[in-house]
Amino acid sequence: MTAMTWTITAEPYDSPAAAALWRAYYTEVSDRWYLLHEGRRTDPAELEREIAADSGADLAPPSGCLLVGRYDGTPAGTAGVRLLDADTAELTRVFVLPERRGRGGAPLLVAAAEEAARALGARRIVLDTRGDLVEARALYARLGYTETAPHNTDPYAEHWFAKELGPAAVS
C-alpha cells in the first residue's frame, strides 16, 4: 500500500484549485456561524456576494502568498499570509477539507505559511479566529501561538493569536 502524502506549493489566489477551496472554506465557516446564531445556513445570494467580495488579491506577491496543500495530488487545503507592516504578517484562510482532516495537513500548511511570512520579511505572525472554531484555536495553541489582545476590529473575530518567527529555515 502506498502512503498518501501532502505537498504544499504557492499558487495564484484565483487559480481554480484556490477558488474552489476558498468557496469550501467560506461556505463552512459561514454556515457554522449562521447555524450557531440563527439556526440556518448561509443565504445562497449572500454567500456568492461575500465570496466575490474577498477575492484574495491581498494574498498575491509581493506582499502576500497563498499556499495550496494537495493530499495525494488532489487540492485539499489552503493557508495564506499577507504583510500588515514590514515586520508583521497575518495568517489567514487556514483550511483543510473535512474529508482530509486528521491527516496532518493543517500543521504542514501553517508551517509553510510561517516560512512564506519569513520570506516576506516578517518577524511576527498574527491571526484571528472565532470562538466556535475550537479546532482552529486548539491547532494554533499546539503550534506555539499565544492568545493576545485584539489586533484588528473584524466583527467576527473573538480570539487573536501571535507568534514570533525565528530565522528562516536554511535549505
Automatic annotation (TrEMBL):
GO molecular function: acyltransferase activity
Annotated ranges, domain N-acetyltransferase: 20-166
Keyword Transferase (UniProt): yes
KW Acyltransferase (keyword) present: yes
Cross-referenced PROSITE patterns: GNAT (PS51186)
Record-linked Pfam families: Acetyltransf_1
Classification via Gene3D superfamilies: 3.40.630.30
Enzyme class, broadest EC rank: transferase
Key words, A-Z: Acyltransferase, Transferase
Protein name (record): GNAT family N-acetyltransferase
UniProt organism field: Streptomyces eurythermus
